[in-house]
Design brief:
Blueprint: H1 2-8, H2 15-18, H3 27-32, E1 36-37, E2 51-58, E3 68-76, E4 88-91, H4 103-109, E5 119-122, H5 146-159, H6 169-183, E6 188-193, H7 196-206, E7 211-217, H8 226-246, H9 249-254, H10 258-270, E8 275-279, E9 286-290, H11 293-303, H12 307-310, H13 313-321, H14 326-334, H15 336-340, H16 344-354, H17 361-368, H18 376-385, E10 407-412, H19 420-427, E11 433-438, H20 451-461, E12 481-483, E13 486-487
Subcellular location: Cytoplasm
Protein name: Proline iminopeptidase
Catalytic activity: Release of N-terminal proline from a peptide
Length: about 500
């Protein structure tokens, strides 16, 4: 099924006119860098016209005269005519999301920063308009088993007629540095979300002299295996949801043992007793789908990324455990846009080369033993990697990141994949850093409540320790949904 499988798996200008405000003094360097204007463009979530740019870079930097790919970037100009010279440079997550599709987030999270600074959105190679490696799922196509998933990835590999091995993190950083040089910026304020925090760390390792500050949100430290940590992180988030329910009289009455319901739901999946027969919520077509254990686990784990969606889980799991899968299917159909923002080929090129192979299977087995998620996250991506070509990361790719650069580290206390403990881990390498945990939030907090103001204050002062976070103190989890038309207070 299209929606279910995707949710478990976003005039010509003169050269001087398209240059970022902070770089106009360096026109000659920009021209020599090979950056070219494209047609003026608008990006979703930004009302004003932005500056659209493109630049050719080598597919393989070891063969600079060989095949080239075109990078696309958008610069959201500062609103002030007296803007600061150091922009916010956005590293998208995923891996496999396109920064050029972050207009909505940029308009919200960086609305105050943009008063005085440009916002730079570069589609990293393999995403967006930078030779996006899409894997299209046709309506009615079902992937109810890992074998189906592997076969789908194999077909996707055939559709992408390019050497996908070169879509690595190291080359992403090389690309970003080439664009920085062409634009003429000297100092950058890096923002990375989720996997983008890894990109921030690698860029900081390679080009520390060009980094003024960093903001990392939903931190994935390079020296922590996401697959080994995933079972414990998911179990923690599920247990926190269950604990919140137990502490609410109305929720506890409606769902007296949410965790037991999760276990019952997953037992049915493991036994092959979860089959949905009905209509595809997106197309209306007839649908007959068996939901495997891995898919069932990932359906729960992926929903917990969003605090808005998480409040539906007790209702959905309760219904599924009792045999009604319609709410489950509808939830994932409604969330299909999450996977629409992923360029799966870029995801696979990075995960299959740099994250899946590093997994210590003994450590994963120990972590999975007491988690509802078991090793499903690893099994899902490992199955995809069987059909994808990838290169390993750099020798130091998984070394800790350390720096004196001012750092603001953000975590959501309910995050099911990069919990606050990972933010604390990152903080160890940053003596001029501060870790802020946002209550009632899941994965990514930069656009939450007063956080945009705090981001602007940090980038302006570079003093994370002086930030007054009292404005975040009122936040808490949303009430749990008990039915299609009601919530628990």
């Amino acid at each position: 099924m299209k929606t279910f499988s995707k949710i478990t798996t976003a005039g010509l200008l003169a050269l001087a006119a398209i240059l970022p405000a902070g770089a106009q003094q360096d026109n000659d360097a920009a021209g020599q860098g090979g950056l070219e204007p494209t047609e003026a463009c608008f990006i979703k979530g930004v009302r004003e016209r932005v500056r659209c740019l493109k630049m050719d870079v080598p597919l393989d930097y070891a063969s600079p005269e060989g095949e080239q790919i075109t990078l696309h970037a958008a610069v959201i100009p500062a609103k002030s005519s007296r803007s600061e010279p150091d922009p916010i440079w956005v590293f998208a997550g995923g891996p496999g999301q396109a920064a050029g599709e972050y207009g909505v987030l940029a308009s919200a999270a960086f609305r105050e920063i943009r008063q005085s600074r440009d916002i730079v959105l570069v589609d990293q190679r393999g995403t967006g308009k930078s030779h996006g490696l899409r894997c299209e799922v046709e309506p009615g196509e079902m992937m109810s088993s890992l074998d189906d998933w592997t076969a789908f990835v194999a077909d996707c590999r055939k559709e992408n007629d390019i050497d996908v091995r070169h879509f690595t993190m190291e080359n992403v950083v090389r690309d970003m540095e080439a664009v920085r040089q062409a634009l003429g910026y000297d100092q950058l304020n890096l923002w990375g979300g989720s996997w983008g925090t890894r990109t921030v760390g690698l860029y900081l390792k390679r080009h520390p002299e060009h980094v003024r500050s960093i903001i990392v949100d939903g931190v994935a430290p390079p020296d922590v295996s996401l697959f080994e940590s995933a079972p414990v992180s998911a179990e923690r988030a599920k247990h926190m949801l269950a604990e919140d329910c137990r502490n609410s009289e109305a929720c506890a009455s409606r769902y007296p043992d949410f965790e037991a319901q999760v276990a019952a739901f997953l037992d049915k999946a493991a036994a092959g007793d979860l089959r949905y027969t009905g209509n595809d919520p997106m197309t209306g077509d007839a649908l007959d789908l068996e939901i495997s254990f891995v898919m069932a686990v990932e359906s729960i784990r992926s929903v917990m990324y969003s605090t808005d969606a998480t409040v539906l889980l007790p209702f959905v799991v309760d219904a599924a455990a009792k045999g009604d899968l319609e709410p489950l299917i509808a939830l994932y159909a409604g969330g299909a846009s999450v996977s629409d923002s992923m360029y799966l080929g870029a995801t696979l090129s990075i995960l299959c080369g740099e994250e899946v192979p590093r997994t210590d299977m003994d450590a994963l087995a120990r972590a999975a033993e007491d988690s509802f998620a078991k090793d499903s996250y690893y099994q899902y991506w490992n199955a995809g990697c069987k059909a994808w070509d990838a290169l390993p990361g750099a020798p130091d790719a998984h070394d800790p990141v350390t720096s004196d650069v001012p750092a603001l580290i953000l975590s959501g206390d309910l995050d099911p994949v990069t919990p606050p403990s990972m933010g604390e881990h990152w903080l160890k390498g940053f003596p001029n850093g501060r870790h802020i945990v946002v209550a009632g939030n899941g994965h990514i907090t930069s656009n939450t409540a007063c956080m945009p103001h705090l981001l602007d204050e940090f980038v302006t002062t570079l003093d994370a320790g002086a930030l007054d976070t009292a404005c975040l103190g009122h936040l808490k989890r949303l009430p749990v949904v008990t039915g299609l038309n009601g919530t628990v207070k």
